[in-house]
Amino acid sequence: MRQLLLLLALFSSLAMFSSGCGGSVQPGVADGPEQPAPELTPEQVDAEREAARNAAGGN
């Protein structure tokens, strides 16, 4: 009897986890439309290059 109860608990917990929260939500629905990345200003490009150089151990 104890094994039957454990087996029942296992199956019911698996069913609960597989349904999850909002199981019928389609992937990407909450993301909204894709938007292009904003353009970097020349100052931002220079700052990115400097940060990459510093991270690589250069001057």
Structure description:
With about 60 residues, the protein is mostly helical. It has helices at about 1-20, 40-55. It is elongated. About 0% of the residues are buried.
Can you tell me the overall shape? elongated
Tell me the helix content: 55-70%
Please report the distance between the alpha carbons of the first and last residues: 72 Å
Uncertain ranges: none
β-strand percent reads under 5%
Order of helices and strands: HH
- What summary fits the major beta sheet? none
Report the structural category.
Answer: mainly alpha
Q: What is the averaged pLDDT score?
A: 77
Instruction: Kindly provide the radius of gyration, computed on alpha-carbon positions and rounded to a whole number of angstroms.
Output: 26 Å
Tally of alpha and pi helices = 2
How many beta strands in the DSSP annotation? 0
Structural key phrases:
elongated, 56% helix, 2 helices, 59 residues
Give me the secondary-structure topology.
Elements: H1 2-19, H2 42-56
Short description:
The protein is mostly helical and 59 residues long.
